[in-house]
Design brief:
Radius of gyration: 17 Å
CATH class: Alpha Beta
Largest sheet: 10 strands, mixed
Distance between the termini: 22 Å
Number of helices: 5
CATH architecture: 3-Layer(aba) Sandwich
Length: 227
């Protein structure tokens, strides 16, 4: 069970970064293949989706995977589906995306460089928030989500969004499923990408909460210390 709480005076959501990766840290191959989790972990993920207020992904995940981001692998009602949030600087979310269906409300975070015509089009089926000039201001987005009553948010981001959220100090907890497989590939996506730090002393520090075996996988849970 997720403990719902608000972090900071601006009532930003408590963010849980959840992901699955291979033993060598890959979350997808260079072709985008990301079938990593075992069936037991997939059920764990849907239990977490059911328990949080919102779930967030980046635009590349929407375009590549076309996810629904709903609770559908376990018994659930429509009201169990979390609010869906897309970080989409240029408002590129396709109108046909499953994330825009009627299963749950959706917020699309864009910037001032997004086309006004695209914003108007998306606004007809989702709520569009302008957060930042050229790239989505994640701090601003978290504050706006908090003001809408989002207390807990599950981050199912790709490597770039994961890095941006972590380096901005917006992630409180990490839950990672490690699958017994090696993918390799210098072009394959890792759990966290971005610019990275120059020295290990500047790395984002974690504290292990617990670890456990789940089917053939291992799940590790950490608190993020240097928020």
């Amino acid at each position: 069970m997720v403990i719902k709480m608000l972090s900071g005076k601006n009532k930003q959501p408590y963010v849980i970064l959840n992901s699955a990766m291979t033993l060598d840290g890959k979350i997808a191959t260079k072709t985008g293949s990301s079938e990593i989790s075992g069936k037991e972990d997939i059920l764990r993920v849907h239990e977490l989706r059911k328990d949080v207020d919102a779930i967030m992904v980046g635009i590349n995940t929407v375009i590549t995977d076309d996810p629904k981001l709903t609770v559908h692998k376990i018994p659930a009602k429509k009201q169990d589906n979390p609010l869906r949030v897309v970080v989409d600087s240029k408002a590129r979310t396709p109108i046909s995306s499953r994330i825009l269906n009627s299963d749950a409300p959706t917020i699309i975070a864009v910037t001032e460089i997004a086309s006004s015509a695209r914003i108007k089009e998306l606004n007809e089926i989702a709520e569009v928030l302008i957060c930042g000039k050229n790239s989505v201001d994640l701090d601003d987005l978290m504050i706006k989500l908090g003001s809408r009553g989002v207390e807990t948010l599950m981050l199912e981001g790709g490597s770039t969004l994961n890095y941006s959220m972590l380096i901005s100090g917006l992630v409180s907890e990490m839950r990672v499923c490690i699958a017994p497989m090696i993918a390799g590939g210098k072009e394959a996506k890792t759990l966290v990408d971005g610019i990275g730090v120059n020295y290990m002393k500047d790395s984002i520090k974690l504290k292990l909460k617990k670890s456990y075996k789940l089917g053939e996988d291992i799940v590790v849970e950490y608190n993020v210390l240097n928020k």
